[in-house]
Amino acid sequence: xxxxxxxxxxxxxxxxxxxxxxxxxxxxxxxxxxxxxxxxxxxxxxxxxxxxxxxxxxxxxxxxxxxxxxxxxxxxxxxxxxxxxxxxxxxxxxxxxxxxxxxxxxxxxxxxxxxxxxxxxxxxxxxxxxxxxxxxxxxxx
Length: 141
Known about the structure:
The protein is of the alpha+beta class. It has 2 domains: 3-46, no CATH class; 62-138. It is built from 4 helices and 6 strands. It has helices at residues 3-18, 29-41, 43-46, 135-138; strands spanning 65-74, 78-87, 92-94, 107-114, 117-123, 130-132. Strands 1-2-3-6-5-4 form a 6-stranded antiparallel beta barrel. α1 runs antiparallel to α2 (29-41).
């Protein structure tokens, strides 16, 4: 079960327990509050806002940016994970956290993890900017 499904299942359980009548009520207001805090703490990895056309919905460019796992593939398939920021509207990947790759020779590819799926990352023709290939599935640029 992925993280999104686990949080959804827990939310359903807490709400069902809270809706119980009188002495059958198992959840308290504190349980509801704890669930809201958990959702807030996992918001970026659990929720991707979209409209009916499955396009990303953002009010400003800054509101489209989410923190996300970033993976580089080295040598014979060694995957090194760090963090980055992706603009879910444009696909631009920024703020890639540095990671120690001493002893590794050749980077063979990079991707981000969005909604529990790998999404390829590539550099622009000048080798300066990074972009995630979110056009098809996520309604990007």
